[in-house]
């Protein structure tokens, strides 16, 4: 149960980001300051976790050495924490799509409501299916086609296109939202293949470092020197770094190996209703019953493959 709750809370943490970003924009901060402060604080937290993990590994190694030799051993660094510079650079490169996702997603919030931006970001679900079909040269199953149809229908409802028409939607915001989904699906593919044998704490810290450096190159961190960081930006950056760059990767690393990727995908969908709820209650965005029905359909589409798979397993067991 604790592993299910870990993944659920990790997904819900992602859901609060859009609301925090809109509030930061309301205070006058710009894209580079918001994303830069998020990755800076997230990176500091991740380095703290990596150092703590390293310390625990050293202590465990010393205890094992003491038990085996019966005397006080010398301090030896564990091989698990050793990374070559090639591996570090690979992980840093793998972390750049998550920074690009943040830039595209947060910029889309300047043009479209947060409730719509998160729905567009959620299109990474069918994009992942499409990538898998193309890369493996394998035709999607009937279940996948049904899932994509449910997701598309849910998206049209949740975006409010059927209720108010597409003319009221900002094209730039729509394009940025879709591109953020493309970038996020790329991040999922790349991050899973980048040095998977290394401890998650070490993988995430170098990936975050790579993402932060990319953002700092695109948007030089003047906020570090002009005093902006010591205002509200520090609070917004800390909250975004905590809920976006630190808590979810740690909780997913703890929970996903125990509950499986299928169940993790279902629980990960909790991000969507949390984001829409906060947009409605905190940002006071109008979310109609039709749109809530679309959110429900999107969640059903995410869960459908795993639910049908579980049903087939239970039927074959009987």
TrEMBL record:
Give all residue intervals belonging to the EamA domain. Answer: 172-304
Print the keywords alphabetically: Membrane, Transmembrane, Transmembrane helix
| Transmembrane region(s) | 34-52, 89-106, 112-131, 143-163, 169-192, 204-223, 235-256, 263-283, 289-308
InterPro entries, per database record: EamA_dom, EmrE-like
Q: Does the keyword Transmembrane helix apply?
A: yes
User: Where in the cell is the protein located?
Assistant: Endomembrane system
SUPFAM superfamilies per record: Multidrug resistance efflux transporter EmrE
As for membrane topology, the entry says:
Multi-pass membrane protein
Q: What's this protein's family per the entry?
A: Belongs to the EamA transporter family.
Q: What is this protein called?
A: Drug/metabolite transporter (DMT)-like permease
């Amino acid at each position: 149960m604790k592993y299910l709750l870990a993944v659920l809370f990790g997904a819900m943490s992602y859901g609060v980001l859009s609301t925090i970003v809109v509030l930061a924009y309301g205070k006058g901060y710009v894209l580079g300051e918001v994303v830069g402060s998020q990755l800076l604080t997230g990176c500091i937290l991740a380095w703290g976790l990596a150092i703590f993990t390293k310390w625990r590994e050293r202590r465990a190694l010393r205890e094992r050495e003491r038990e085996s030799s019966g005397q006080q051993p010398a301090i030896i660094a564990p091989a698990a924490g050793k990374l070559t510079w090639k591996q570090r650079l690979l992980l840093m490169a793998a972390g750049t799509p998550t920074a690009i996702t943040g830039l595209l997603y947060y910029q889309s919030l300047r043009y479209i409501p947060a409730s719509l931006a998160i729905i567009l970001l959620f299109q990474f679900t069918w994009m992942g299916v499409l990538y898998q079909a193309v890369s493996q040269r394998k035709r999607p199953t009937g279940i996948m086609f049904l899932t994509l149809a449910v997701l598309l229908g849910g998206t049209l409802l949740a975006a409010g296109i059927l209720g108010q028409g597409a003319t009221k939607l900002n094209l730039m915001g729509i394009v940025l939202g879709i591109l953020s989904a493309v970038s996020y699906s790329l991040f999922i593919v790349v991050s899973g293949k980048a040095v998977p044998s290394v401890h998650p704490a070490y993988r995430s810290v170098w990936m975050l470092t790579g993402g932060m450096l990319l953002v700092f190159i695109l948007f030089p961190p003047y906020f570090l020197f002009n005093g902006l960081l010591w205002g509200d930006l520090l609070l917004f950056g800390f909250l975004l770094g905590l809920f976006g760059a630190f808590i979810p990767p740690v909780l997913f690393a703890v929970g996903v190996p125990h509950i499986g990727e299928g169940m993790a995908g279902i629980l990960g969908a909790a991000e969507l209703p949390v984001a829409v709820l906060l947009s409605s209650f905190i940002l006071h965005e109008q979310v109609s019953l039709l749109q809530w029905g679309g959110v429900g359909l999107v969640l059903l589409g995410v869960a459908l493959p795993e639910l049908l798979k579980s049903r087939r397993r239970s039927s074959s067991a009987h």
